[in-house]
Amino acid sequence: MRKLLNIGIEQLKKMIEEMATGSLEALESARASIEGDFNSTEEIASRLHIIRAEVLDLATELLVRYSPVATDLRFIQSAIDVSYDLYRISRYAMEIERTARLVQGPMELSKKAFPIAEKAVRISVVAFRDLDETLVGKLLELDKQVDSLYILSLKALNESPERAGDALVMRHLERISDHAKEIGARVIYIREGRRL
Amino acid sequence: MNLAIETRNLHVYYGNNHVIKGVDLQIPAKGIFALMGPSGCGKSTMLRTFNRLIELNDGARVEGEVLLFGKNIYSPDVDPIGIRRQVGMVFQYPNPFPHLTIYDNVALGLKLNRLLPGEKIRERVEWALKKAALWDEVKDRLDDYPSNLSGGQKQRLVIARALAMKPRVLLMDEPTANIDPVGTAKIEELLFELKEEYTIVLVTHSPAQAARVSDWVAFLYLGKLIEVGPTRKVFENPEHELTEKYVTGALG
Hints:
The structure holds two protein chains of two kinds.
Chain A (H helix, E strand, L loop, with lengths): L1 H33 L6 H26 L3 H33 L5 H23 L5 H24 L4 H29 L4
Helix pairs in contact in A: 1-2, 1-3, 1-4, 2-3, 3-6, 4-5, 4-6, 5-6
Chain B lengths: L2 E12 L2 E12 L2 E6 L6 H7 L10 E9 L2 E2 L7 H7 E4 L11 H11 L5 H14 L3 H4 L12 H14 L4 E5 L7 H14 L4 E6 L2 H7 L2 E6 L2 E7 H6 L4 H7 L5
Parallel strand pairs in B: 3-8, 3-9, 6-7, 7-8
Antiparallel strand pairs in B: 1-2, 1-4, 4-5, 9-10
Helix pairs in contact in B: 3-4, 3-6, 4-6, 6-7
């Protein structure tokens, strides 16, 4: 029984890994869009939507078949949540690309925040893959940095409404960084059983 | 917390074999407390110390204290028969008396111990069979013999027999180990009903059953208490590595 459950958990890990790669591709594509280079982020988000459904199917099957407990249970619960986080990251990336297409104007703060948000996602993916809780502190720090830039983008709207595009993109980057932080919280939950 | 049973530095020996090794355990009143662990870990032995049934085993020696609602049951002034009236027991194999009718199986303890006047016995038998969720299935054949009952029904009959004595605690030693899944589900539902009024101590080798039915769970391994706590906590986030291995099936 144990071996069959292990096979399922390994499969879940592979699917999350694939989603992680996809969400990073989506972010890269979104970053290019604010430089004027438009790709097909939407396709990536659609692909992640399909994988997320597969993660839910497999996780449900593992819960029903094997009644997992302890670390196994916490990992499966977390895989469901992380698949949602990664899917949402790809959706926000898609929204950034759409915003960049439709809204003109300077994107200074977004350009500054993008590498930080990307770094946060990359670190969260590694933290989850290696179940490395030492990286979670870094995620909290990066999330704060993105959040500060988001606040600045909102304040800037009072003086120059033409910076609305920047604020809209920042809003998505703030969400992306928040999902990366949530992935970190799941690492703590798997390792220590503590919910942050 | 109102404790039904408490053990203090409990040791049990069979001859030179040290089976229970200094266990301190607190079992709250009214609820289901599961003792789980692999075969041979001492859980059934431990259960038998809670009603002094262990003394029927020649060569068994108990050290330490077992408190039943605050009173040490191993004090010299305590009558083990009186303890067993307060602490009912159900075993792995359903063991109704085959030569007695369904009715007499439940009434026997009351008659032998002269606990009730004759006219009250019928009422108590009906009450116990209803409590054990068996009444509807046997009310028209109380004079039949238990050999016609299914394994699950036999086990509920035995539970009714124990309940008829109005115990405060019910000890159950793997009560569903030899029952089919339908019978097992009925007994588990019954336990859920009974825990409102009784303290139930359930020995099980199945972590899945402990997770399904108990409110608290203790994990015993090689005669030692490894971990104890609320069931959800122990199954979601066990503190001890051995518990983690046992509940996930990775032990041994």
